[in-house]
Amino acid sequence: MDWIASLQATLPELVLSVGALALMLVAAWGGQASTRAVSWTSVAVLIGAGIALCGPASYAGVVFDGLYRADAFAAFSKVLIYIAAAVSIVIAPRFFARGDGDSLHPEYPVLILLSAAGMGMMVSAGDLLTLYVGLELQSLAAYVLASFMRRDQRSAEAGLKYFVLGALASGILLYGISLVYGFSGTTLFTDIAVAYGAGKSVGLTFGLVFVFAGLAFKMSAVPFHMWTPDVYEGAPTPVTTFFASAPKVAAVALGVRVAIEAMGPAIGEWRQIVIFASLASIIFGAVAAIGQKNVKRLLAYSSINNVGFMLVGLVAGTQQGISAVLLYLTVYIAMTVGSFLIVLQMRDTEGNPVESIESMAGMSATRPGLAYAMLFFMFSLAGIPPMLGFFAKLAVFNAVVAAGFYPLAVVGFVASVIGAYYYLRVIKVMFFDSPAPAFQRSNAMVEYVLITVLALFISPVGWFALKPLGVATMAAAKALF
């Protein structure tokens, strides 16, 4: 394939990269006054990158001699990433407009664009080098975003913890990549698959373990989850919304691609790792969230728990399993972003953010609209029918049962019942406890519209989207096989 066709296949990343660089210059020249223009232009750039996915070049297959893969799986993942990134930009101005010195700067949307470009490279990686470059581009922007509120001690601490543990995870991943390269002689996924299919090798097995350990950190899967609650709590809420959505999609999609395309012949080895990470994440996420009093920390453990359910679909190692993972990711993005949008509305009478679960007491009386939206999101996260979260969990359980892993499905089902407790506790606080002081009302119409749309999507209204979603996710899954 010639260079022109290859560049056309990477058009979404080119749009994001050129847009981010141009907006960085605008931010440098325009200063603080350019924040609003840069933010909305960044959203337009993300829309442009999404439009670029519609062309036939985005499904051209392998380009740049195998370094990059333009297929339906990557396109589906990128759509989710761009939507989550755009929402994270749109909701930021009101949060930072508090007059405490940590106002929104035009660098914020630029960092999200650069991170989105890195995530696009991650989900389209066809080579270990492309994988690492994309992952580091995403991570470097994320480290800065976590500590974006320089005068806030919690934000600075979150950024430092994320950076230190992220550097450790990158080292582990690099060590795994070096082992895989050393024992296979290549970094291309297709050639690595040939090496794994040629017979068992201790070096390749160790490389597999270290690669999956590095990717588990990015997914925040147990036992590499330790950064998640502290970073989610300390980072600004719009940044936490971003961390809980877009990078999660990129990490899970990258893990799926590596497992199926690069290490498919070693399914017996990596399946053991994924089963452990899946069960550990489901159980730990369910149990550790029970005693949480901060709603952002609760949602952090919820995120760990949900990653475990996503990995259940990967254990199957089939098209049905990968399709279920993508369906779960789609519903998860709606549930999580919606929940954090509710958290953004939690402000006291002076306009300061409030994050305790107790402050939500009696919200059904003081802010009924927000309370019922949160009810939808909590029911869906718990996997209670008729919400869409139930069908997402049903899809991954069906896939793993069809593959013959009945014990995993049983344990996952029992753990989901345990996890339902802390979601129901939030509902109990909102609807049955004595009302706490009402949250400050705002005129954030964009946020209210987003909350309404997401709540309707995960409600029975979203059933109409299940069939087209099933078709799209199955087409995306087939691209890997």
Written account of the structure:
With 481 residues, this protein is mainly alpha-helical. The protein has helices spanning 3-9, 11-30, 35-52, 72-90, 92-96, 107-123, 128-146, 153-184, 189-197, 202-219, 228-234, 237-243, 246-262, 267-288, 295-316, 319-344, 363-366, 368-382, 388-402, 406-432, 445-458, 463-478; strands at 61-63, 68-70. It has a two-stranded antiparallel ribbon. Strand 1 (61-63) and strand 2 form a beta hairpin. 55% of the residues are buried. The model has no long low-confidence stretch (mean pLDDT 88).
Instruction: Please tally the β strands and state the result.
Output: 2
With strands numbered from the N-terminus, the spatial order across the biggest sheet is 1-2
* Largest sheet data: 2 strands, antiparallel
Give unreliable regions as ranges. Answer: none
Annotation field: number of helices: 22
Percent strand: under 5%
Cα distance spanning the termini: 22 Å
Overall pLDDT metric: 88
Which structural class matches the secondary elements? mainly alpha
What is the overall silhouette? globular
Q: What's the alpha carbon Rg, rounded to whole Å?
A: 21 Å
- H and E order: HHHEEHHHHHHHHHHHHHHHHHHH
Share of helix, binned = over 70%
